[in-house]
């Protein structure tokens, strides 16, 4: 099935935009949701994580201790690579499984780190980037997650730059000071284009 990968920096509005496509009957496969599911209690990544990192990274309920793991991988790139070597193949396999079950004219895969993690670009037919100013990202994420400005900046610093993301884009939705109504009109135009490209 024709697949559009949607990406954008933290707080750019990719979930908001993806939901507008879903409202038009497009199947969504969200790699963040899958990442959470495989590290939830009984999640398929948990045995390997427990083996590689030790039981202290497993919470009482059997899920990943996210706070502890976040702190580790934030400062330790080797640990990050070890974690990703476990999770990424599982996320890819689960994504494929959901893709095969998808209904609708085409499907949209939500991949926050599509530009950063190279291989995703080859797994989708088209890349849609949701773009906004860094100041907008900061304001939104401070509000949404109750993060400090520095916390948001630290996350943004680990993500691709706005320029790198735009360079990888086939299509762009600009989401700065945009009403949901205006966003919906952009989504309508893109949706028509994707339906045509999908030959659906
Ligand atoms: P992402 O998934 O890229 O991290 P979200 O879609 O969750 O971003 O958007 C971040 C926050 O900003 C959310 O609280 C969302 O409701 C809000 N938001 C995004 N776009 C708009 C917009 N055009 N107008 C108003 N609020 C928006």
From TrEMBL:
Its EC number is 2.7.1.24. The keyword ATP-binding applies. Transmembrane segments: none annotated. The keyword Glycosyltransferase does not apply. It holds the Pfam family CoaE. PROSITE patterns: DPCK. One of its GO terms (molecular function) is dephospho-CoA kinase activity. Signal peptide: none annotated. It comes from the Bacteria. GO terms for cellular component: cytoplasm. Pathway: Cofactor biosynthesis; coenzyme A biosynthesis; CoA from (R)-pantothenate: step 5/5. ATP binds at residues 11-16. It catalyses: 3'-dephospho-CoA + ATP = ADP + CoA + H(+). It is found in: Cytoplasm. Belongs to the CoaE family. Catalyzes the phosphorylation of the 3'-hydroxyl group of dephosphocoenzyme A to form coenzyme A. HAMAP family: Dephospho_CoA_kinase. This is Dephospho-CoA kinase. It comes from Paraburkholderia sartisoli.
């Amino acid at each position: 099935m024709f697949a559009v990968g949607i990406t954008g920096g933290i707080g750019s509005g990719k979930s908001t935009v993806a939901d507008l496509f879903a409202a038009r009957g497009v199947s969504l496969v969200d790699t963040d949701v899958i990442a959470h599911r495989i590290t939830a209690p009984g999640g398929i990544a948990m045995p390997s994580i427990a083996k590689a990192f030790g039981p202290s990274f497993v919470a009482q309920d059997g899920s990943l201790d996210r706070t502890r793991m976040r702190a580790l991988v934030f400062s330790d790139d080797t640990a990050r690579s070890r974690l990703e070597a476990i999770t990424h193949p599982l996320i890819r396999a689960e994504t494929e499984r959901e893709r095969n079950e998808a209904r609708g004219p085409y499907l949209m895969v939500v991949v926050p780190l599509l530009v950063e993690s190279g291989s995703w670009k080859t797994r989708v037919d088209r890349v849609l980037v949701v773009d906004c100013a860094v100041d907008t990202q900061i304001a939104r994420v401070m509000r949404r997650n109750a993060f400090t400005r520095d916390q948001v900046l630290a996350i943004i610093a680990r993500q691709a730059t706005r320029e790198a993301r735009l360079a990888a884009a086939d299509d762009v939705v600009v989401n700065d000071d945009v009403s949901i109504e205006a966003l919906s009109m952009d989504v309508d135009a893109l949706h028509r284009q994707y339906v045509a490209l999908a030959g659906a």
